[in-house]
Amino acid sequence: MGARVGLLLIVVLGIAVAQECTEPPRDDRRCGAAFGNARCRPGQCCSRNGRCGSSSSHCNPRSRCAREPAVVSEAAVCSAPPLTSGRCGPDFGNAGCSDGECCSPSAWCGTTPAHCNSRSLCPAATTTPAVQPQRQQHQHQRPSRRQASSSDGPIRAMSSCGNSRRMVALTFDDGPTPGATEPILEVLADHNIKATFYLTEDNTGPAGCPLIRRLLREGHMIAHHSKSHPQFNLPSTNLRREMESPVAWIAACGVDPGLVTHFRPPYGQLRDDQVQEISGRMGFVIDLWNVETMDSDDGNTNQESIENVKRAMGTIGVGNSAVVLMHDYAEGPRIVDAPDGNALVQIIEYFRSLRYRFVRMDECYAQCDAPRCFGNGGPTHWASVFDPDPNGVGTFPAE
C-alpha cells in the first residue's frame, strides 16, 4: 500500500512539474508557474527560484522543471531568413543569422565567443538565406545613470545575491597563478567551500591551464576577467580583444568556453556602452561585489583584510548577502599565508559564525529577483565602478 501511495505521489509531482514549464521561454529567463508556466531554452533547467540556467543550482532534484532537451536539428531551428532584430532560433520563427554569425544559447545572432560555443543553438552560418535584411542600427544615445539598458537584450549584472539572504560568495581575481592559487584551493577544500575565480589571461597564460582544469574538477566556478586587466576606457576594437582572447585561451586549455558566462570588469569600471555590449549583446552576467578585503593594497595586512570584511558587513547588515573580493595573482596578496595570519580561514570562520551559506556566483545570481541584482553595500571604493543599482552612485567616463 505504502509503495503504491509513494508511486502515486511521484506521478502527481511529475505532472505538476511538467505543467509548470509548458509555455515559450521568456526573454528575462524567468520560468515556472510564477512566470506564466514559461519553460527554459534548450539545455537549461528551471531553478526553485524560477530562473533558467544550466548550473548545478538550476539543474538538481529540486528544479521546477527538468533540463530542456538539446536542439535535435541545428539546420531546422535556423532555417528561416535573419530577422532585423538579431534574434534567432526556434522561439523566433526558426530565424537564422547572417553569414559568419552564430545563434547564441540566449537566441541572439553574433560572432563573439558568447555566441559561438558548444552551447550555441546554431553554429556559424556558412550560406546566406534567401533574404539578407540590413540589421537595424540603433542610434547611440548615452543613457543616463538610471537607464543603462540595452536594445539588444536585458542587462544582467549583480553586486550581491539580494537582501534578506544569508549567503556569501568568495571570489578571487587575476589568477589562476601557480604558487598563489593552490594554497587557496587547499583552504577551500578543507572547509568544503566552492568559490568563483575570475581569470586574467596575461597574468598566467598556458601555465595556468592545469589550475583551470583543477578549479573545475574541484567544483569551483571560473569566470572572465579580461586578457590584460586594463582600465576599460578602451576603443571598441580593444574591448573585443580583451573579451575574445581569454575565451580562446580557455578553449586551448581543453576547457569548454561555454562554461564562462560571468564577467568581472577590471577595477569594476565600465562605460554605459560597454555594459550594453558585454551583457546586452555578448550575454555575460556582469559581476561586481559589496565586500572588499583590500588585500591588493600595498601594505595591507591580513588582519586589516579581516577588519575590512567586518566593517563592510556592518554597512550591509547581518542577514543580507555578501560578495567578497579577493585576489590570487603572483607576487600579490597572500591572503592565506601572510606572517600575520591566514585571513581566508578567519573570513570563513567569521561568516560561519553568522550562519551564512557559501555559494558560487552562479548560485548567487540564481537567487536574484531581477536581471540587475543588488542589495545593501553595493560595489565600493571608486566613483567609476559600475553599479547594478540604477540609483547607485557609480559614474561612467566619456568615451
TrEMBL record:
A GO biological-process term: carbohydrate metabolic process
Disulfide bonds: C31-C46, C40-C52, C45-C59, C88-C103, C97-C109, C102-C116
Signal sequence segment: 1-18
SMART domains named among the record's database cross-references: ChtBD1
SUPFAM superfamilies xref list: Glycoside hydrolase/deacetylase, Plant lectins/antimicrobial peptides
Region (Disordered): 127-158
Keyword Metal-binding: yes
Domain of life: Eukaryota
Source organism phylogeny: Eukaryota, Sar, Rhizaria, Endomyxa, Phytomyxea
InterPro entries noted in UniProt: Chitin-bd_1, Endochitinase-like_sf, Glyco_hydro/deAcase_b/a-brl, NODB_dom
Name of the molecule in the record: NodB homology domain-containing protein
Keywords: Carbohydrate metabolism, Chitin-binding, Disulfide bond, Hydrolase, Metal-binding, Mitochondrion, Signal
Pfam families referenced in this protein's UniProt entry, alphabetically: Chitin_bind_1, Polysacc_deac_1
Residues annotated as domain NodB homology: 166-359
Molecular-function GO terms, alphabetical: chitin binding; hydrolase activity, acting on carbon-nitrogen (but not peptide) bonds; metal ion binding
Span of domain Chitin-binding type-1: 28-80, 85-128
